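Question: Hello, beginner here. Any chance you could explain the protein record under this note? Any guidance would be welcome.
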Amino acid sequence: MSTIPEQNPLLELSPQDLRAHAAAALTRARERSVALTDAVDDEDLVRQHSKLMSPLVWDLAHIGSQEELWLVRDVGGREPLRPDIDDLYDAFQHARADRPALPLLGPAEARAYVKEVREKAFDVLETAPMEGRRLTESAFAFGMITQHEQQHDETMLATHQLRKGEPVLHAPEPPRAPARKLPAEVLVPGGRFTMGTTAEPWALDNERPAHEVDVPAFVLDTTPVTCGAYVEFLESGGYHEQRFWSEPGWAYRQEHDIVAPRFWHREPDGWWRTRFGVRERVPENEPVVHVSYYEAEAYTRWAGKRLPTEAEWEKAARYDPESGRSRRFPWGDEEPTAEHANLGQRHLRAAEAGAYPAGASPLGVHQLIGDVWEWTSTDFHGYPGFSAFPYREYSEVFFGPEYKILRGGSFGTDAAAIRGTFRNWDYPIRRQIFSGFRCARDPRPGEAG
């Protein structure tokens, strides 16, 4: 394991610069929240577009409620603004399907509430110490709330995808992939590497602590599996061959009559999909999206491969064979830019496979950050030495075999809420999320050198 310390620009900032950085991150998150909620009328804001999701107005007020609890009350020590709504916006007390029946804040009241909370949170930020308390060290609490809001923004984006009606969201097209042909696979050498982090200031508890992991050599797809490749699986009858599916996956596929990725439709002239209200042909060269863990697993078996483990995915994304150290991102330690990855709802779709050569890892693996969340075969659990912080309900209560880990973020994930160590998790049946995958396999004899 390399002894070179993790490199992070936040660690070099003065307290005043940290405050400015946190303010900018919070502002960017709020601009996105406003754009997602202002895009529809009040009737759409309070409507439940799917029982899988909350009404958009619940997400908006929940964002404000969490910000009030942590920044205004805890960090700032201020008097509560709306203690009467704490229970309404506690995600653990009310299932998503039940939230429309609650006495929620209406659109105007919710907007006024989050605005007032933000004003008080900025007041707190001006004077909060940036050291001396773990919650505020390097502006952690402000980073945590930024990430929370951006995560709900991605959830609201998924709600928009489920919404019926005319398109209301618009964005430019992502870049095209360069003409050069990439190799299909990359060999990742075996050996130890540093997984997780100890020094990343805004890393969440499940990303900690850094620890050594020995990962045997494996072969990984250079890019996520594309729609074109997935169509081959469909057309070969893969959804109707039980031998490719796990027992629970096959049972779920049969019970719900799943025959293609969510939002795909078979027409006489080929496969079509609905994307944020736009009906279009399935694009051959884009990563497939809106597939469950079970579907991803079935495809890999059909292809004679498997899903990568979480450790394999992180090694491919972070390991630098020249220095032996783990980077923050595949391309290095600097924050993501538009040249590195498809993030932040900049585009409303995944980019073509290979479209971000500047974001490739030293081993030549592409699009590990952005475009689509990637399923791994690993159950969600804590790392050795895990310690819940600042509350058990962020991670620890979800540990167990019910959830599978996803890595890398999607086109709907903001840069503030993704890094090489970031861990997402969900039920293996989930398809409304912006999830895809890539395949891995063990080396053939002599292939690993």
